[in-house]
């Protein structure tokens, strides 16, 4: 009798992210469903993965690179060399983060009808949102790599590894925050607005459109180190180190100790956020069906 009692678990609770790994087929189906629903009736379909960031890049490049003088030129020798590559390498990564977190935070409420009808690992929905965002990310990455080759790209293995680490940092962070806010959003729908504000801040609180050396010169070394602890900042600098720096003469500013300290710190912080998101999700998921 005691063994049967010990085997009982609280209704509505699953095995966490481990269930997502064991339900890979369901994850694949959810990703396919999300892509089909998103582009149903669309003329361009997946081509929007190129069009939207392309328009965003052109607007920011003209506004910041040309009008505000961030692009290095004979008239502006203090600007950033190959600013177009610098800008786009940050845009593709921040777009991945904003899309992944924005959709993951709404994924549980958005799939409320399915959650109320059958049981399946609820973590599948935020994780599937991150995977869909990754599908949109890789076409943009192909365009970025092609532009880098045109600009004389010559990376080494370490620099390529830094890009992989940057992507992992963002994917882990988006998954963790997606689990956290996806669960909270079931109980407090205001969290959607909070996530929207967080994503707006994330875009400007990372060196996507400006150089991190500008932050250092304005805030000083102490606050600059605080600024650098942001995992998104670390990931963006890793992408700059991989895609932008090899297109320059190598003298451009990249944060010191990026490989030895900041990237490992970014991975640790992202894993910590993932664990926090999973623990919060597990604590709240028992009443998802009732609340939805």
Automatic annotation (TrEMBL):
User: Which residue ranges does UniProt annotate as crossing the membrane?
Assistant: 43-63, 83-104, 124-152, 158-182, 194-215, 261-281
Name the Gene Ontology molecular function terms of this record: ABC-type transporter activity
Q: Which UniProt keywords apply?
A: Cell inner membrane, Cell membrane, Membrane, Transmembrane, Transmembrane helix, Transport
Q: What is its main location?
A: membrane
Entry's Pfam families?
A: ABC2_membrane (PF01061)
Compartments where located:
Cell inner membrane; Cell membrane
Annotated ranges, domain ABC transmembrane type-2: 44-284
From its record, what is one biological process in GO terms? Answer: lipopolysaccharide transport
Q: What is the topology of this protein in the membrane according to its UniProt annotation? A: Multi-pass membrane protein
- Which GO cellular component term is one of those annotated? plasma membrane
**Entry keyword Cell membrane:** yes
Q: Read off the PANTHER family from this record.
A: INNER MEMBRANE TRANSPORT PERMEASE (PTHR30413), TRANSPORT PERMEASE PROTEIN (PTHR30413:SF8)
What family does this chain come from, according to its entry? Belongs to the ABC-2 integral membrane protein family.
Name under which the protein is recorded: Transport permease protein
Q: What is the lineage of its organism?
A: Bacteria, Bacillati, Actinomycetota, Actinomycetes, Micrococcales
